[in-house]
Amino acid sequence: MSQQLGGQPIIILRQGTTRNRGQEAQNSNIAAAKAVANAVRSTLGPKGMDKMLIDGMGDIVITNDGATILRQMDIDHPAAKMMVEIAKTQDDEVGDGTTSAVVIAGELLKNAESLLNQQVHPTVITEGYQQAAKKAREILSAIAISVKPTDSTLLKKIAETAISGKGAEAYRELLCDIVVRAVTRVADPDGTVDLGHINVQKKVGGKVEDTTIIEGMVIDKERGNPGMPRVVKNAKVLLLNAALEYRKTEVNAKINISRPDQEQAFLDADAQMVHTMADKVAASGANVVFCQKGIDDVAQHYLTKAGVFAVRRVKKSDIENLARATGATIINSLDVITKGDLGTAGIVEEKKLSGQEMIFVSGCKNPKAVSIVIRGGSEHVIDELERGMHDALMVVSDVVKDKKIVPGGGSPEIELSLQLRHYASTVGGRIQLAIEAFASALEVIPRSIAENAGLDPIDMIVEIRAAHEAGKRTFGLDACEGKPADMLKAGVVEPLRVKTQAIMSATEAAVMILRIDDVFASSKSAGPAGRSMPPGMGDY
Ligand code: ADP
Ligand code: MG
Predict the structure, then answer these.
(1) How far is the CA of 107 from the centre of ligand 1 (A)?
(2) Of the listed 43, 63, 65, 383, which one is catalytic?
């Protein structure tokens, strides 16, 4: 870029940098963001289609999940990348509503484009959008319905709505039942849920129907020695964060051995020490030991002799979940074990699953950590089940935390657009135009759900709007029945948090993109293909 100043051009950018400004920059950004929204729009709702994504290595992913689709797409345009960002945020924060967030952002930008063409300044649009989003949040909390976190029928409906349309839907009865049991189990009394306490294991093989929840833990390990019992009933579980092995001298000690019997004595002393450790474990009354550190061969030998089921090098997170599941305290030193430190489990056993040994700790009393083992014929099936299950786990825990839901099927979007239009008329001025544009953008949700279900979107929206104006605020589109219906009765319900977050992050992305009026792009330092590749690759 150069500017004339007293006849002398001043170059402030490095050669090769391109600059894209004003309307041109805006148009390009909006077009890119809209393209992203359009790419995922056909997956929205229970009748949405799937996408097949093939990566550079030829690996295939088939999914209906917005966040996964966008993550797999090799997106290069900076504005398009912002759209991918909102999908990621939505997925991390609330676990669902990713497609909705992206589709709403795309529609907000589309409507902004026509305001820009009418010479409405971008600042007016962004202000209007932010005001509208704030108002939308208020309206949403006003229409939200309070629920009991113990209402498992309702929690199941929340889970079912989240996985409808996904590959996991065919097994929704089973999966949603598992999800609700799992979340209810691990929830703390104050409603906080840490999904880290739900240990999800994927094992290819068997049927999807074999997917189960274990009220306890499943650990991808084997017992230390085949001589140990395979099954322990009425297990007394010791969790150890200390090594059961001879501690190698830390400093370089020099040991002078002048006679063969001295060496033997030295080795005997080592073995004796480990023997004492194993004795202490057995003396604690434990018949099962999970050790986060190592257990050496000598210790294994003595533990086997004492009939103890011992597992070494168990992951820290597994040990922590075992503590929650069995009620055991994690012990750091063998010298201070008390009876109260031991946990209990109805049964601890090693079982083969698809040819691989795993340890099942089940029959725990009131476990605060559980495991889910997902089964299925192929990796693709299991991965899509896991994604569906993840969404369901997230939405159920959202509701357990917040205790607030809203109807789905486009119902809150229609209500919002009606109320926001009314609000716009009280604001007046040019901002009114922006708020109205925001209001109509939200209708993209019911419109897309209808389109994807092969229904006439205009008829559906008119009918739902009329129902809302008549005071039936929970009316939305029942995509399975193909007609407007009371979403609460149809059991199509979502966490309030998912809706709020989708609208907030969509607004944020749209505003961010609209504020940009200048794009400076440095030339890529990569090879001739313009792609960044490791040196040496791509030169063929
Ligand atoms: P997202 O990634 O935004 O969650 P989905 O493809 O999961 O996208 O679609 C979510 C939308 O589908 C929500 O608006 C939800 O209310 C709606 N929905 C779910 N089940 C039904 C149903 N049976 N009938 C109509 N709409 C539904
Ligand atoms: Mg969803």
Answers:
(1) 17
(2) 65
pTM: 0.84
161 C-alpha to ligand 1 centroid (Å): 7
142 close to 496: Cβ distance less than 8 angstroms: no
Residues 6+ apart with CB under 8 A from 326: 216, 235, 237, 239, 343, 344, 345, 361, 364, 367
Nearest ligand 1 atom to the CA of 478 is 24
The C-alpha atoms of residue 242 and residue 238 are separated, in whole angstroms, by 11
Cα–Cα dist 381/449, whole Å: 25
Give one word for 427, left, alpha or beta, with left for phi > 0 and alpha for psi -120 to 50. alpha
| Amino acid at site 94 | V
Q: Residue 53: helix, strand or coil by DSSP?
A: strand
Please state, in angstroms and rounded to a whole number, the distance separating the CA atoms of residues 467 and 119.
36
Pick the catalytic residue from 43, 63, 68, 99.
Answer: 99
Question: What's residue 254's pLDDT?
Answer: 67
Q: Please write the tens of the pLDDT for every residue from 472-493.
A: 999 999 998 999 999 999 999 9
Residue 6 has what pLDDT?
62
Residue 68, number of CB atoms within 10 A of its CB: 20
Nearest to residue 132, comparing CAs of 403, 425, 516? 425
Q: How far is the CA of 41 from the centre of ligand 1 (A)?
A: 12
pLDDT of residue 537: 41
Residue pair 62/380 in contact (Cβ under 8 Å)? The answer is yes
